[in-house]
Amino acid sequence: MAFPNNFLWGGAIAAHQAEGGYREGGKGISTCDVMHGGKGRFAEILDPKAIRKNIESPEGYFPEHTAIDFYHRYKEDIALFAEMGFKVFRTSISWARIFPNGDDKEPNEAGLAFYDSLFDECKKYGIEPLVTISHWEMSINLTQKYNGWISREIVPLFERFAKTIFARYKNKVKYWLTFNEINMTLHMPFLGSGMIVDDPSKKMQMCYQACHHQLVASALAVKACHEIIPDARIGSMVASMVAYPYSCRPEDTWEKISMERNNYYLTDVQVRGKYPSWMKHFFAKNGIAIKTESEDEKILLENIVDFVSFSYYSTSAVSTDPDVAKNRGTGNIFGGIKNPYLKSSEWGWQIDPLGLRIALNFLYDRYQKPLFIVENGLGAVDIPGENGAINDDYRIDYLQKHIKAMKQAIEEDGVNLMGYTTWGCIDIISASTGEMSKRYGFIYVDKDDNGNGSLKRLRKKSFHWYKSVIESNGEKL
Ligand code: BG6
């Protein structure tokens, strides 16, 4: 049998993409509450004027305000996860539910009680919660007052948040992740860091500085977790990037290596406790000066993660040839060049199951730490047929091929893989577009891109398929 008996099969969501409950239970407004839906979402949040307008005089439909109403329906939803046999369920804690302004002196009891009840519900079915401390959201007050993670002052605020939730949930949560896709800040500063970049010429400096603050905060969270919950395991989380050299020109391979290094330097620090040596040259060459505190080096070195988790959806190609480089594809943050050997999803993300085996081997070779795939899946349009049947064979096909690749990585390559949580196990709001129509779930949620719908939950064909995958511990695909 390829998968160990304790393999953690399950699914994943993030608080802001699922919960709704916008101002309920004392929740503060978060950075995710000020983004409109639609294909232009990323352009909107890269535009300082547009973000400020949404904060100061919000108009129109903001999908995260209501999302799929998980805030009220989590019991029904967790029962469905249990029916599929989930061993683990990944979600995040909305920082603004616990500290509505981010810098409040005391946590909000109603917010803490909500997650108590959510984790109890998981435990009732023997499902282990896997909790992301920060999944792209924070109180909007932290943007307005400090411009997000560019400010060192966010570090102790985050540490207090982390310590509060460790102390509160120490008997309920044994698997933690610090920052979701920590590399996101370099691409989408507002999403990853609640930071508005007014002057594009300062973007690099600001992003690398914000990332340094997140690295220190991540290490402080690791420290606190190890002290408060000694039997817990806490990991890093990165958006994996497999990019193929478009040609065998040496320059294309060098480009691939440079991009990979830049992508993984954050995980390098989280795993090895220090910046890679090339990074210092990179900072110097690009005129980037990272402000540090005297204790940072020690904090980073002494508090490394227990495991490495990552998201995997697609791959891309790279080239230094400007004619080739024009042919850009789309994908999870990176874009890259379209690979002619791969098919694409309806959103242009290229489908590459072997790429997952490559990512697993690459990360295991690089870090020699247990790995956890905490996001993988196909965003697709689902149209319920008569009697509400949803025959999502395309999703089954995608997941089946990716699980086969995982199996090979374990069985044939000896990769140590702890678990697998598919992304958006129930349909949720898409992070990149705010759409509902980009669905990943085994469970269909009746809601459209404009917020209309009954919110009724329906089991898709993939629901029954995944149940049997888990039941057979990955043998019946
Ligand atoms: C990852 C994020 O980047 O990709 C998730 O961690 C996100 O929050 C997921 O939802 C899929 O992206 P999208 O844009 O299809 O929702």
Question: How would you describe this structure to a colleague?
Answer:
The protein is of the alpha/beta class and 477 residues long. The chain has a single domain (8-471), classed as Glycosidases (TIM Barrel). It has helices spanning 15-18, 41-45, 48-56, 70-84, 95-98, 109-124, 140-146, 154-169, 189-193, 203-228, 250-272, 277-285, 296-302, 322-325, 353-367, 393-411, 461-471, and strands spanning 8-12, 88-92, 128-134, 175-179, 233-239, 243-245, 307-311, 316-318, 371-375, 417-423, 443-445, 457-459. Helix 16 links the parallel strand 9 (371-375) and strand 10. The longest helix is centred in the middle third of the chain and has 26 residues, at 203-228. The model has no long low-confidence stretch (mean pLDDT 96). It binds 6-O-phosphono-beta-D-glucopyranose. 6-O-phosphono-beta-D-glucopyranose binds at residues 14, 17, 180-181, 239, 311, 332, 375, 379, 423, 430-433, 438.
Write the layout of secondary structure elements.
Blueprint: E1 8-12, H1 15-18, H2 41-45, H3 48-56, H4 70-84, E2 88-92, H5 95-98, H6 109-124, E3 128-134, H7 140-146, H8 154-169, E4 175-179, H9 189-193, H10 203-228, E5 233-239, E6 243-245, H11 250-272, H12 277-285, H13 296-302, E7 307-311, E8 316-318, H14 322-325, H15 353-367, E9 371-375, H16 393-411, E10 417-423, E11 443-445, E12 457-459, H17 461-471
Parallel strand pairs: 1-2, 1-10, 2-3, 3-4, 4-5, 5-7, 6-8, 7-9, 9-10
Antiparallel strand pairs: 11-12
The site of 6-O-phosphono-beta-D-glucopyranose (BG6) has 15 residues, from loops.
